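Tutorial, part two.
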Amino acid sequence: AKELLTRAGVATASAQIFDHPPQALAFAQTQPLPIVIKADGLAQGKGVVIVTDSTDLPGAIDHCFQLSPHVMVEQFLVGTEVSVLALSDGKTIVPLLPVQDHKTIGEGDTGANTGGMGTYCPVPGIDKNFMAQIQKQVLEPTLAALQAQGIDYRGVLYAGLMIDPSGKPLVLEYNCRFGDPETQVLMPLLLTDFALICQALLDQTLDQLVLEWDQGASACVIAAAGGYPGPYRKGDGITGTERVMPGVQVFHAGTVQVAAQLQTNGGRVLGVVGSGSTLPEALDRAYTYLQGIHFEGVYFRRDIGKKALLRG
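Running the prediction step on this input gives:
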């Protein structure tokens, strides 16, 4: 992805990729802190370590090499993270609504990285003009670079972006899939028949399809198992998911049915999604429903969407 972004002229953090821990450590020790250590490939949100103290570098590099044979030492970027999932039929690329993720386990964006503790959509400040900038500077050059390689890519291109203080979008990562928990807040707002979208991707007629969106808001709050993102509990009974509440959907992520009982079976157990005409209404519905969810050690962040509410 880094090589493709460079060829495409898409802004991204500078980085070096290593196959051996000693070389990675030697390079990292010459770089200013903070610095980012990344495992190459999917790691359930646990393949990124931000190092602020040089004494933590060996442990961070060893951790990432345990996840992948290739590790990247990357420049630390400052700004606001935004997820932009886009659809491509190989000829045209169309962004979905921007989504704000909350990656760390702790409130106030503190603690270890996770697969995502909550999301909301739309994102205040990311307006049509800014989305046009992302389209021109990120999405279209990426598609052109894929075409130049002879790659007929049809599906989802999910760009994790950092908006720097000057307002410039830089790509943190690309995924060739839908995002979790971004998709949970996008789908309740999508009015266009998703089957028609998939058919347009296959037929390469995406340019003829106009996506229609609900003008309201959606928010997802993750209920996690005790100990996550470290070693976490499994096998605890879950109650409260049988309730039906208007404007609320519950997505099962780390659950299993044992006889007649629903039990925890993963780090991120449930995604509770509230939808409403406004973001405060969507968040209120999600958190109200969460009050009735019970399992041993249940944990969820209580500040999902707080930044958006402060921005008004």
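The helical segments are 2-8, 21-28, 57-67, 128-148, 183-186, 194-203, 279-290, 306-311. In part three we will examine how such features are distributed along the chain.
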